[in-house]
Design brief:
This protein has 367 residues and is of the alpha+beta class. It contains 12 helices and 15 strands. The chain has 2 domains: 138 residues, Glutathione S-transferase Yfyf (Class Pi), Chain A, domain 2, CATH 1.20.1050.130; 160 residues, OB fold (Dihydrolipoamide Acetyltransferase, E2P). A hairpin with a 5-residue loop joins β10 and β11. Its main location: cytoplasm.
Length: 367
């Protein structure tokens, strides 16, 4: 279990990594300060402005008050779990963790991993958030550095390695250009991409291009000429129901799908599947094989026809997806359920007014 002193060292190191600082520049007495003073000192050294100051300081206070004793921290973790129920990170643009996330992660990590499995099961959003933080920011390296007490040496080694790598690269470039220095070289054409083209490229694969809605299956029947397909009439709050063809015949009978809530993409280009018109794509979670396939389930509180949202991601859906651009094919690899079965895009939950969409299949692909 972490002590107050080790907790503050963890926060100091995590913030140093977050702001790309050498920990040696952090004032020596910072680890003896409270977390708020520590945070403000590091901000001052880094030269960054304090963004979302009120919100960040709220979570700094949460971290400062977080109990050290394991048996006293569960209620605080439940509060954190509730806060994360509808978003990927505490603060930020919906994808990138903020300094508040880094601070809280550093404080709660050791307590959470020492909880019983029963207690962990009650904190699905915290567990998802911790997994997401670990893969998006170098916080996971904090614990290892603290345990080895070689943080500064590690940073020096990294800096030396980067410097050596840079020298080797410059030598190689000098040979390739007949020994000319970098300043003598003519600019290489075609290497740099304009910022607007990079942004356009990123927008091409954004989930905001998809029009994903909550639907209700009114009727389902077997496809007349394909044993693996079912045909469904789905209400998405429009004047008329949509007819959708799905590859669910191996996993469900038509009766099992009657009056079932589903999640579907409604701006795919309509087309015939084995001579039957389909006007949407029902999103399903599936395991490897697949041996189990299950339509995503919106919560009971979700309204029929409402649009699925993703925290921090804005944008207008395409009227109709262009199959030639393969937009859907670029987005679906980022759709999956987390270890608690919550449907996500890059770790961000599929959200409705009634809560997230889910599946009984954890860590599944969504197609």
């Amino acid at each position: 279990m972490a002590t107050i002193e080790s907790r503050r060292k963890s926060v100091a190191l995590a913030l140093s990594k977050y702001f790309s600082l050498d920990p040696s520049v952090v004032p020596a007495d910072s680890s003896d300060s409270d977390i708020k003073s520590l945070y403000l000192n590091i901000i001052a050294v880094s030269g960054h402005r304090v963004n979302h100051s009120d919100e960040v300081l709220k979570w700094v206070a949460f971290a400062e008050a977080f109990p050290v004793a394991l048996d006293a921290c569960f209620e605080n973790l439940k509060r954190l779990n509730d806060e994360l129920s509808g978003k990927a990170v505490l603060l930020g643009n919906g994808l990138n963790p903020s300094e508040a996330d880094v601070i809280v992660y550093s404080v709660v990590h050791s307590s959470l991993i020492n909880l019983s499995d029963t207690s962990k099961e009650k904190l699905p959003h915290v567990l998802r958030w911790m997994d997401y933080i670990q893969v998006t920011k170098p916080v996971g390296a904090v614990e290892a550095d603290l345990k080895s007490n070689k943080t500064e040496q590690s940073i020096k080694n990294v800096n030396k390695s980067e410097a050596d790598s840079s020298k080797d690269k410059n030598k190689a470039e000098g040979k390739a250009t007949g020994g000319k220095s970098t300043g003598d070289k003519e600019p290489t054409k075609g290497k740099a991409k304009p910022a607007d083209k990079v942004a356009e490229k990123e927008n091409e694969v954004s989930v905001s291009l998809l029009n994903i809605q909550v639907g209700l299956i009114h009727k389902a029947w077997k496809h007349p000429s394909a044993d693996s397909l079912l045909v469904e009439e789905i209400d998405v709050g429009e004047a008329k129901v949509r007819q959708v063809v799905s590859g669910l015949a191996k996993y469900y009978s038509p009766d099992e799908l009657m009056n079932r809530r589903v999640v579907l993409i409604t701006n795919v280009k309509p087309g015939k599947l084995r001579d039957v018109m389909s006007e949407g794509l029902v999103l399903c979670a599936s395991n490897e094989g697949p041996t189990i396939v299950e339509p995503l389930l919106p919560p009971e509180g979700a309204k029929i026809g409402e649009h699925i949202s993703f925290s921090g991601i804005d944008g207008k859906p395409e009227d109709v997806l262009n199959p030639k651009k393969k937009q859907l094919e670029k987005i679906t690899p980022h759709l999956f359920t987390d270890d608690k079965g919550v449907a996500t895009y890059k770790g961000i939950p599929f959200m409705t007014s009634g809560g997230p969409c889910t599946s009984s299949i954890p860590r599944a692909t969504i197609r």
